[in-house]
Known about the structure:
The structure is a single chain. By secondary structure, the chain is α+β, with helices and mostly antiparallel strands. The protein has two domains: 3-80, no CATH class; 112-272, Gcn5-related N-acetyltransferase (GNAT) (Aminopeptidase). It is 29% helix and 38% strand. It has helices spanning 63-77, 92-100, 134-151, 156-170, 228-242, 257-265; strands at residues 3-7, 12-14, 18-27, 30-39, 47-55, 82-88, 104-113, 125-128, 180-186, 192-204, 210-219, 247-253, 269-278. Strands 1, 2, 3, 4, 5, 6, 7, 8, 9, 10, 11, 12 and 13 form a 13-stranded mixed beta sheet that branches.
Amino acid sequence: xxxxxxxxxxxxxxxxxxxxxxxxxxxxxxxxxxxxxxxxxxxxxxxxxxxxxxxxxxxxxxxxxxxxxxxxxxxxxxxxxxxxxxxxxxxxxxxxxxxxxxxxxxxxxxxxxxxxxxxxxxxxxxxxxxxxxxxxxxxxxxxxxxxxxxxxxxxxxxxxxxxxxxxxxxxxxxxxxxxxxxxxxxxxxxxxxxxxxxxxxxxxxxxxxxxxxxxxxxxxxxxxxxxxxxxxxxxxxxxxxxxxxxxxxxxxxxxxxxxxxxxxxxxxxxxxxxxxxxxx
Length: 280
């Protein structure tokens, strides 16, 4: 039997200047599922994504594997140099397929329902990052995120472009961007211990409730190992509850064992895994 892809409608524009297309998975001319390919051309590189992969007929026959390989060929023809897939935490079969195809976990999403307003440790307070502080904070945030992307496997040019573009889209009005919390943690002497950035209405859950997102949590280098990361997460949770948002999510790089352990101890659980592989 021959497994192929057939277009399910015309190619469309995707968010952030991308291109996307939905495909039927065909076996001997008969539809047995579908998937979507998406690409985001950038200067010097082009990341791609395979999503919505589902085999509805004849599972466990290798059709998903062949379809994913065919989708990689589509993305390669679009000029993509890397392909990403996202796998829900409960989709063990999907995770096994991704690993079998050579994908490596790069990042995971975690989330937590918020109930009680947390208190900060004695002697610590938080304050807003205002217009005067923002330019310096932004330069550091862009540079640090770029380095994290490089450490996770992205090339320097791709990491630079992604870091700059992501910050530009997320903070179009800087510290005055609506539904944004930019906070510094300070001690009783006014020393800055770290900062946290929260998008208070980043997305919506299936039932319509708003989902906030931790975009950045950073402890000052000379203050690490003192529990301030935990306190900054409490600041983030307080900002959410004060704004009437009761669900908070975050991304964490999969090799950051210290951060993952912190988030798990605070009650965050994995909801999604993002895996990648280069297209040679």
